[in-house]
Design brief:
mainly beta; Integrin_dom_sf; 171 residues; membrane; 2 domains; 8 strands; glycoprotein; Integrin_alpha_Ig-like_2; two-stranded antiparallel ribbon; integrin
């Protein structure tokens, strides 16, 4: 019949050990099958596999045949990333009579300021490191300036590389 095992985690000689009581007394020559489901956290830096050492021991009769078996389980981290973005203001309309002021270093003389904000979210379940986000922004359309890239800023410990052509007129 199927029975639920009683298992207790503990530390033994610096290792994490889980002891499961299979049954007592057990008849001589008995054969049992054990299915175990383990939930292990903190595997982000474990590489591509984790190794378990399994050993069957009897309390009643110490034996030299208490050999251990090594089981290697592949580890695959999964994370779902989501990119959110918006523009402030959401809609911008230039008056038909508007013209830029040549030679001015004031941003308002070159157009209406529009701020684009992008947020990269990790929806899990694993943590992520070493993420690279490449964002292409059209700066010209039909030989004319569409968006003048003035500055680039980040929050949250991210590093960004300034794109070529960032603020070429030093506005």
């Amino acid at each position: 019949g199927q029975e639920k095992l009683s298992c207790n985690p503990k530390k033994e000689n610096g290792s994490h050990v889980v002891l499961c009581e299979l049954g007592n007394p057990m008849k001589a020559g008995a054969q049992i099958t054990v299915d175990m489901e383990l939930s292990v956290s903190g595997l982000e830096d474990m590489g591509d596999a984790i190794t378990f050492q399994l050993q069957l021991r009897s309390k009643n009769s110490p034996s030299s045949t208490n050999t251990s078996v090594t089981v290697t389980v592949p580890v695959e981290a999964q994370a779902e990333m989501e990119l959110r973005g918006n523009s402030l203001p959401a809609t911008t309309v230039l008056p038909t009579s508007w013209h830029s002021v040549e030679g001015s270093r004031q941003p308002e003389d070159h157009g209406i300021r529009v701020e684009h904000v992008y947020q990269l979210h990790n929806k899990g379940p694993s943590t992520v490191t070493g993420v690279t986000l490449l964002l292409a922004i059209p700066s010209h359309l039909g030989g004319r300036i569409l968006l003048y890239l003035l500055e680039l800023g980040t929050e949250g410990g991210m590093n960004c590389t300034d794109p070529p052509g960032l603020n070429p007129h030093q506005v």
